[in-house]
Amino acid sequence: MEVENSNTLWASTNSGIFRIELTANKPLITHLTQTDGLPSNAVSGCVIRNDTIFIGTSKGLGIFAIKKLLAQEKSIPEKVIINSVTIENNEYYQPNRPLSGHSNNHVIFNLSFPDYASQGKISYQYKVEGLDDTWQISSSPKIIFNSIPPGKYVFRVYGLGYNGKPSYTSSALAFEIRPRFWQTWWFRLTLGICTVMAIITVISYQLQKKRNKKLEKSIMKRRSQNWSCKLSKHRSIRISFTIV
């Protein structure tokens, strides 16, 4: 803990440094982290001399004028530019309307973030609403998605400066992935009906085959009985002639 004045003190933690100002109503707490210029969020201690604070971190010493440190913007006054989007091998430059394409193709977003103060040390925080609400971070300006299932989505992205400070707002673009014909409900319904009909046809064929075999056996049995009767009559006639 470091005392700034009778009403204000600073607390060092592993998640940044806190300035606690005791007021009449409730404490006014300001949380400062790496996004505010600290070398690291792991702060081991601080020392105040006049209007300057010396903050020791796991990645070195930070020296700041207190007024300037507190007056820093919490975000970068720029936003990410979506330069182009590639869907189904078609590239759309600076799109300003919802896009669409079929599934089983790459969807590629080409981005840029005009934060020149970061000297190229920028990254992108993004997510696809409707697919995965988890934020991802990439240092590459090219974001690639593979085999997105059919549906309607919104790609949303923030720019991050060299110290992790975000852009003041996000950039977003809506897009739709249309199903291939074999992914549509009517194709699946037709395929299901055809499958059921094929099964019924096979079962009917097997049953008819069994009935035919049974009928053939019955016919053969009757023929055999008829031949037996004829032979018996023929023998009886021969015996009668012999007796005469």
What does this 3D model show about the protein?
- There is one protein chain.
- The chain is of the alpha+beta class.
- The chain folds into three domains: 2-72, Beta Barrel (Thrombin, subunit H), CATH 2.40.10; 81-182, Immunoglobulins (Immunoglobulin-like, Sandwich); 184-243.
- Helices cover 26% and strands 40% of the residues.
- The protein has helices spanning 66-70, 185-243, and strands at residues 2-5, 8-13, 16-21, 28-32, 43-49, 52-57, 60-65, 81-87, 90-93, 99-102, 107-112, 123-129, 132-138, 142-145, 151-160, 171-178.
- A five-stranded mixed beta sheet has the order 10-16-15-12-13, with no helix packed on it. A four-stranded antiparallel beta sheet has the order 1-2-3-4, with no helix packed on it.
- A hairpin with a 2-residue loop joins strand 2 (8-13) and strand 3 (16-21).
- The protein is elongated, with a radius of gyration of 42 Å.
- Keywords: Membrane, Transmembrane, Transmembrane helix.
- It comes from Chryseobacterium arthrosphaerae.
Defining traits:
alpha+beta, four-stranded antiparallel sheet, 3 domains, 2 helices, 16 strands
SSE layout:
Blueprint: E1 2-5, E2 8-13, E3 16-21, E4 28-32, E5 43-49, E6 52-57, E7 60-65, H1 66-70, E8 81-87, E9 90-93, E10 99-102, E11 107-112, E12 123-129, E13 132-138, E14 142-145, E15 151-160, E16 171-178, H2 185-243
Parallel strand pairs: 10-16
Antiparallel strand pairs: 1-2, 2-3, 3-4, 5-6, 6-7, 8-9, 8-11, 11-14, 12-13, 12-15, 15-16
